[in-house]
Amino acid sequence: MDSPKLFDIHSHLNFSRFDEDREEVIKRMRDNGIWTVCVGVDKKTSREAIKLAEKYDEIFAAVGLHPTEDLTTGFSSDEFEKLARHPKVVAIGECGLDYYRIENQPAEAEQIRQKEVFARQIELAIKINKPLMVHCRSAHGETLEILSSYEGARGDIHFFSGAWEQARKYFDLGFSISFAGPITFADEYDEVIKKSPLDKIMAETDSPFASPAPHRGKRGEPLFVKEVVKKIAQVRGISYEEAAEAATRNALNFFNLRTAPKTTK
Ligand SMILES: [Zn+2]
Fold it and tell me: What SS3 class is residue 178?
């Protein structure tokens, strides 16, 4: 199998919203030369992501525990390590901090729990030498603080929604950022898109969520990553081909897929 034309670095083809027509969605993606990383948010969806990755050369998996999932039983490093060592697992996540829902209340216990579960996943990523797929909402200061306290942590801040000042700090730590559908209909991302080094940015859909224009309001799918790349090209004043080539090359480097592992089946 040769190289992809585009790489949607974050999708959830494992989610039930694709149960009706998953095969067709994946066919559209493959027919367009698009690869994706199917991302788990807990044990169950992480296992499902691996199953899809075992079935299709174009699909890879990320395994982790999302901060808005039930964290009361903590993060089982042993169980996740078993999943994470699978040859088609290319990242740990999504994991991180999400203070959006709790920011209007003190909810200190919840914040402590999120940080604890995040820390365990950073340690696992370092241990098995795979990058982090970081989810961060309304908590960039804390996320930067935690990440910078670990030597050897590397990864991507997915669905980046922060300001340029924060993006710059992530780059200083060696992290990259990825943009999702909302950049196509909101201009608040333009400054970061323009100022970021071209080798530090990637594209994603986070499908089924957050569809880009002109598909807004519809269920998202990896095919729509084209719209995200189109917008990156437009904002930076470069050709679509140049943006697509850069975002794809960055993804292959980031996930260490220069020589992509084949499916095991
Ligand atoms: Zn996601």
Answer: strand
